[in-house]
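Sequence, structure tokens quoted for completeness.
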Amino acid sequence: MNKDEVDRMVKEAEANAEADKKRKEVVEVRNQADSLCYQAEKTIKDMDGKGSEELVKKVEAALVTLKETLKGDDAEKIKADTEALTKPLYELSAELYKQTEAAKGPEGAAGGEKKAADDVVDAEVVDEDKK
């Protein structure tokens, strides 16, 4: 390669740097949104009629909106819709966690005491004859 070709390639790289940066941002935002969609679907499935129908409907509506937005490449819109899904999903997850903890109830505390009473000792065996 001669010097002119190298200079031309450097200028092209500089010219495309901004476009590359924007594309990278879109890809990262899309990945976060896809991950959140998966998490929302899993949480809804885990609720399976156990939680507030109102919260589930809010999450489902925000999920549909975000999935529709993901068909495009508008990073700002994807970010906004991701935020719109995050709040109700957090509330739904918190409700699911509370229900899970309440279901454990006193059994969870008793289970912890059982484990402490097992008297398991972790030790290393040394064969004195082989020294």
About this structure: The chain has one domain: 3-104.
